[in-house]
């Protein structure tokens, strides 16, 4: 059966990751994706970012592991924390389910972060972005990301949009960026 959006995105990551890779969760939130990455690269390292101390603290409590660094800072500052090549990263955008809906990712810092992470990516590396556009700032973020990524040269990256076209208009969809060289 065809996968739902986030599981499909995780498969795009799983396909290319080896045990010793460096990975990034750009939106830690409840920490589920961080835990997934931590299991994929037991001999590597995961950097997990969130601006909310509460999110970081509860994820750290639930999923403490030697190969995870939780970073209480915005993903737009990624290059302050990482200088080694990164194999893959996840952006699960929007706001934390059950949390403060006013703390949501916003297009300008998201685009800065995607650029910064892409610069750290090894050739063949991938970034997945799950876009939630049911809320107003999500729509702005969706449009800005699509406009920005559509303009990336084909010899730099492949950018895939993975979306069910017979679901609700506001259903989340996935972007996959693969670095070519
Ligand atoms: N919408 C997803 C979950 C998204 S969680 C779902 O439904 O499953 C998004 C997380 O991104 C939140 O925990 C929020 O605090 C965090 N966030 C917002 N802005 C950020 C930024 N600039 N850098 C890092 N994390 C950020």
From TrEMBL:
SUPFAM superfamilies: S-adenosyl-L-methionine-dependent methyltransferases. This is Putative rRNA methylase. Transmembrane segments: none annotated. GO terms for biological process: methylation. The keyword Methyltransferase applies. Keywords: Methyltransferase, Transferase. It holds the Pfam family rRNA_methylase. GO terms for molecular function: methyltransferase activity.
